[in-house]
Amino acid sequence: MSEEEKLTYREAIEKAGASITRFPLIPVKGIPLMNHIANNWDSIWAFCPDPSDILIATYPKAGTTWTQEIIDLLHHNGDSEACKRAPTPVRSPFLEICSPPPVPSGLDLLKKMDPPRMIKTHLPFQLVPPGFWENKCKTIYVARNAKDNLVSYFYFDCMNLTQPEPGPWEGYIHKFMQGTLPWGSWYDHVKGYWMEREKRNILYIFYEDMKENPRREVERIMRYLDLSVSDEVINRIVELTSFKKMKENPMANYSCVPPVVFDQSISAFMRKGEVGDWTNHFTPEQSKMFDEDYERQMKDVNIPFRTLI
């Protein structure tokens, strides 16, 4: 084993610290992605999963980590200690992410894991490597209402020192509406998976439903994955994946990522986890402008989003 392979995830990031910056975006098939991802695109596109692999797809800040933890606990019969074997990005690699060496890429981590693997992606449907569909991998897509997703992404871009400078809130709203943020348009993202959900057997779930009735949604995920655990285990998973519990869990709260990348003194990675926090950020004028644009961009589809529960 090389010295680099012996490094922990956090140590690898700290070692790469001088190379870490707010990386520029480069379009890949029209979707803005960080330059390291774009430069490694051929390898990402060529990735061929095992049919037993599970893909967890979301637009950024829509409940990804929450869903990853639920699935890991389901696979380990609610054993919280088993799910503390490594931080989330090591247990469930981020397919397309690439960083300066010695930080392992998502592909590097996946190569060292035996199937079945939990694989995370923020790629829109059209950029998901075709091997996932050819091998009929189970795919869970989590969607969050646009206004709350926007607020959460704004705070994330403030503290994530590898993504472009977010600028002021007023301008960020327009970047979101125009789809110029990393991973592109929220509107196209949620619509892409929605329109393919039946053909591709995608379990499409909503963040708001998870907040409203987490037990029901955990059971939906369990059935989709052809798993069966006891009611007692379901209750335990619901408790262990509450926002409070996950925020306190060092294997799930991204404290494994040092401040050179995630400066949690600016904003916590797990900030609020609420539905309706957008009401604390949008002015009435901004809300009206956003709603009018939303109607225009979503007029061709009827996805039952809720901005309050």
TrEMBL record:
<dbReference type="Pfam" id="PF00685">
    <property type="entry name" value="Sulfotransfer_1"/>
</dbReference>
<dbReference type="InterPro" id="IPR027417">
    <property type="entry name" value="P-loop_NTPase"/>
</dbReference>
<dbReference type="GO" id="GO:0008146">
    <property type="term" value="F:sulfotransferase activity"/>
</dbReference>
<comment type="similarity">
    <text>Belongs to the sulfotransferase 1 family.</text>
</comment>
<dbReference type="GO" id="GO:0006584">
    <property type="term" value="P:catecholamine metabolic process"/>
</dbReference>
<protein>
    <recommendedName>
        <fullName>Sulfotransferase</fullName>
        <ecNumber>2.8.2.-</ecNumber>
    </recommendedName>
</protein>
<keyword id="KW-0128">Catecholamine metabolism</keyword>
<dbReference type="InterPro" id="IPR000863">
    <property type="entry name" value="Sulfotransferase_dom"/>
</dbReference>
<keyword id="KW-0963">Cytoplasm</keyword>
<dbReference type="GO" id="GO:0006805">
    <property type="term" value="P:xenobiotic metabolic process"/>
</dbReference>
<keyword id="KW-0808">Transferase</keyword>
<feature type="domain" description="Sulfotransferase">
    <location>
        <begin position="51"/>
        <end position="301"/>
    </location>
</feature>
<dbReference type="GO" id="GO:0005737">
    <property type="term" value="C:cytoplasm"/>
</dbReference>
